[in-house]
Amino acid sequence: MTTTAAITIEGVSRSFGSKLALDDVDVTVFPGEIHALLGPNGAGKTTLIRVIVGSVKPTKGSVAVMGVPWSDLSKPSSRTLFGLVAASDRSAYHRLSGLENLMFFGRLYGLSKREARRRALEVLAQVGLEDAANVRTGVYSHGMQKRLTMARAMLMEPPVLLVDEATHDLDPAGARRVREMLRRAADQGAAILWATQRVDEIRDTADSVTVLDRGRVKFTGTVDLLARSFDRHRYRLELATPVDPDSFNGSSLASRLEPLAHSDGYLLTLPDGVSLGQAIIALSQDGLDVTACRLERSDVEDAFLELTTEVDR
Amino acid sequence: MKQPEVVTEARKLPAFFRRDLLTALSYRTAFVLDWGNLLVQLFLFSLIGRLVDPATLEGTGSSSYIEFTAVGIALAGFMQLAMGRATASVREEQLMGTLESVLLTPTRPITFTLGSVTYDLIYIPIRTVIFLTIASVIFDLGFTAAGIAGVMVILFSFIPFVWGLGMVAAGLTLTIRKASVIGGLVGLGLTLGSNTYFPIEVLPAWLQPIARANPLTVSLDAARLVLTGEGWGPVWSAVQPILPLAVVALALGVVVLHLSLARERSKGTLGQY
């Protein structure tokens, strides 16, 4: 990974009327990196992407893509710096084939007809749509349309890819295919900012993550760091005899046991300052025989919920 | 060597043409219906023509009402279609979700609006000529083949005016969304305030001076004369007043479109529909 950032966002705010959609947001993405922009609906992810592509003007702060400042991003000469995979499927001409769609956009990027056709066929093959190249996109499945959008974003091999909710309504196989395409693009040196609300998929795909909630950055770092930052020391226990935690006194550690839904085990979250050894001794004193114990790793999802639901708790 | 930007942008127009040609070919029924509509209009006006005394058309260059109105249908149809397409194309792109994708390419907004009507600006004059030819054959109108070239020159001088108004309407559509009705109303106003379907003398006295200055009236007057063998004189006398108006309409269109885009970017509503 080089040290020169592909996307630099510093102190960006944007309001729509009285609503503050982005509040002092900082994000940095490097070439070859998949940076997840994780947040619930209304967190400001799409607004931030629209700021980066020059469609929305920031109220304050600075944005630069490959060193080009925001004021110059809407200039035609800057348009090859990024490819956008929009959240919506409605971004292709449905009466035209996938090939014709991509050729049209290739021509708008200044390619000759022959070059546009060659490049369109190349990216269609990359996203696995070569067999559907001459089929009208109106009859493409949801996943095929999403892949076509990916193909269009990659048409000019931009150094930056902005991906807005690319997998949120795809089936698992389709979502995995999109993630694999993103990984390949990153491996080839593209900087990818990937807005998503699917917590489960960032662990194995993203290199780093910014958690956004109500327009504010709640966390920035690696996915592992996000998970570890909110490790609540949870353990999965198995007992010799099933027990009802509610039958214990509230001050007893046994009352903190949470029966697992799909197994005979229990989940125990240790209070601050209590070690696992102390906990097992305390449970034993309450008459519980612990037969197995293992660390229940704090999930990224826990961290995400911790960060984004604090007002509701 | 780097090409001048105007060349780079002009090279994109065939892509728009191809896109819209393929789209039009995919809607075969609409294509047939358009021609059906034209022919029904022609039939309707031929019936109305039986009620109109040809003497009222004296000085218009037309010897019958159907001859008079066939030219009107052709040119007014050209204007309304071209203007309607300029707004409809922006609206369609908004609704299809392709507007933002197109504007994210290194394509100037002015290229986008011209590109969006390129197919129509080529197809509609051809449609006009075919229509006039069919009308001439069916109703034995006194049009001359040599007059068709004159009509084409008039049409092409008229295009920048229509395109300018189309850009104004497109800019308004970007901002007001469902503003395509404004383009339709402007087209309807220009058509009614002209000699498309009846001589200007039929209009209220206060409207007649305005109707005479209407570029559509100027074009129609010249087209009727040139089609009936009056030579190229009427063509030049029509082109001269239309060109300054075309420059004003184009300048206004560019300003409105750029202001609309700047406003939408500032508000963050460019992709909304």
Structure described in brief:
The complex is a heterodimer of chains A (313) and B (273). By secondary structure, chain A is α/β, with parallel strands linked by helices.
- Rg of chain A, Å, rounded: 24 Å
- Tell the overall outline of chain B: globular
Series of secondary-structure elements of chain B, N-terminal to C-terminal = HHHHHHHHHHH
Structural class label of chain A: alpha/beta
Shape of chain A: elongated
Helix content of chain B: over 70%
Determine the structural class of chain B based on helices, strands and strand pairing: mainly alpha
Compute the average pLDDT of chain A.
86
Reading the helices and strands of chain A in chain order gives EEEHEEHEHHHEHEHEEHEEEHEH
Most extensive chain-chain interface:
A-B, 37 and 31 residues
- Largest sheet of chain B at a glance? none
Strand content of chain A: 25-35%
Residues in helices of chain A, as a percent range? 25-40%
Overall average pLDDT of chain B: 84
What brief labels describe this structure?
heterodimer, A: 313 residues, alpha/beta, four-stranded antiparallel beta sheet, 10 helices, 30% helix, elongated, B: 273 residues, mainly alpha, 77% helix, 0% strand
Spell out the blueprint of helices and strands:
The complex is a heterodimer of chains A (313) and B (273).
Chain A: E1 7-16, E2 19-29, E3 34-38, H1 45-52, E4 60-65, E5 68-69, H2 70-73, E6 82-85, H3 98-108, H4 113-126, H5 142-153, E7 160-164, H6 172-187, E8 191-196, H7 199-202, E9 208-213, E10 216-222, H8 223-229, E11 234-239, E12 258-259, E13 266-269, H9 276-285, E14 290-296, H10 300-308
Parallel strand pairs in A: 3-8, 3-9, 6-7, 7-8
Antiparallel strand pairs in A: 1-2, 1-4, 4-5, 9-10, 11-13, 11-14, 12-13
Helix pairs in contact in A: 3-4, 4-5, 5-6, 8-10
Chain B: H1 5-10, H2 13-26, H3 28-49, H4 65-96, H5 99-103, H6 109-139, H7 145-176, H8 180-192, H9 208-213, H10 215-227, H11 233-267
Helix pairs in contact in B: 2-6, 3-4, 4-6, 4-7, 4-8, 4-10, 6-7, 7-10, 7-11, 10-11
